[in-house]
Design a protein that fits this description.
296 residues; 10 strands; alpha/beta; 38% helix; TIM Barrel; 8-stranded mixed beta sheet; two-stranded parallel ribbon; single chain
């Protein structure tokens, strides 16, 4: 049975309360990012975990600007016509990583469908810049679908990321409404291709729940991801960024998230993060270490 979407869902339950974005580390990181003219998905996508993550001196850097060429129904990132590619951005990201003393960095981007390679070259340059400045730092990239371009994916994989992440976001039935300009099959193909190109590189994907899907549909997505040889999966609650975005259908309980986690582990995922406040980059370093570097 499908979940009925409510325009005015019940108030957020207690398990969706995140720490407030305050503290010395939070202020320091905010000043650093602003001073280097960088963007983070933490701020641009209104992530509820920004207080926790920034106070632990972790952030997900967003390259290629902060204006996206797509208008997805769930995403708080601004959409419109992006500016020119800033080829100095990789250096500044690397400077921030070094200043923070990071041993694990996550890099993502907006969609840049107007670019021939979708911005793949800047991903590769950013990986290299981080490695040059901080040789011991591991790098995870959370990439867009590059409109299915094999050449763009080859460019990113040529940069040898430590983890290749691409989110399917939701179940196939909801794609037209939730992920404008994307195709479910194309995302699965990208993940499968990444594993074919570099079998030793862990792949990762994530999805939101509470947006109108059924539990059987979620389990179907998990099975599809395993068939695409995805290693790590994240499952979190969709939270409406503004009244202009898609409404929350319901708040999924912690018990249900635990059931999804158990099902995913039984399917063979190397690591699963499943909970109300889980996001794609949440505990990214811990997930990679737990799955592929025992004792790491």
């Amino acid at each position: 049975m499908l979940v009925t979407i409510q325009e005015k869902p019940a108030p957020r339950p207690r398990w969706l309360r995140a720490p407030a974005p305050v503290g010395e580390n939070y202020r320091e990181l905010k000043e650093l990012v602003g001073g280097l003219r960088l963007h983070t998905v933490c701020e641009s996508a209104a992530c509820p975990n920004i207080g926790e993550c920034w106070n632990h001196r972790t952030a997900t850097f967003m390259i290629l600007g902060n204006v996206c060429t797509r208008r997805c129904g769930f995403c708080a990132v601004q959409s419109g016509k992006p500016g020119a590619v800033d080829y100095d951005e990789p250096r500044r990201v690397a400077e921030a990583v070094a200043a923070l003393g990071l041993r694990y960095a996550v890099v993502t981007s907006v969609n840049r469908d107007e670019l021939p390679d979708g911005g793949a070259e800047l991903f590769a340059r950013t990986i290299q810049a981080i490695r040059d400045r901080s040789p011991g730092c591991r790098v995870e990239v959370l990439i867009p679908d590059f409109q299915g371009s094999r050449e763009a994916l080859e460019t990113v994989m040529g940069g040898r990321p430590d983890v290749l992440n691409h989110n399917v976001e939701t179940v196939p039935r909801l794609y037209r409404r939730v992920r404008s300009g994307a195709r479910y099959e194309r995302s699965l193909e990208l993940l499968a291709r990444a594993k074919q190109m570099a079998p030793e590189t862990p792949t990762k994907s994530g999805l939101m729940v509470g947006i109108g899907e059924t539990s059987s549909e979620v389990l179907g997505v998990l099975r599809d991801l395993r068939r695409s040889r995805v290693d790590i999966v994240t499952i979190g609650q969709y939270l409406r960024p503004s009244p202009e975005h898609l409404p929350v259908a319901r708040y999924v309980t912690p018990e249900e998230f635990a059931e999804y986690a158990a099902a995913a582990r039984a399917m063979g995922f190397a690591h699963v993060e499943s909970g109300p406040l889980v996001r794609s980059s949440y505990h990214a370093r811990e997930a990679e270490a737990a799955a592929f570097r025992p004792g790491g």
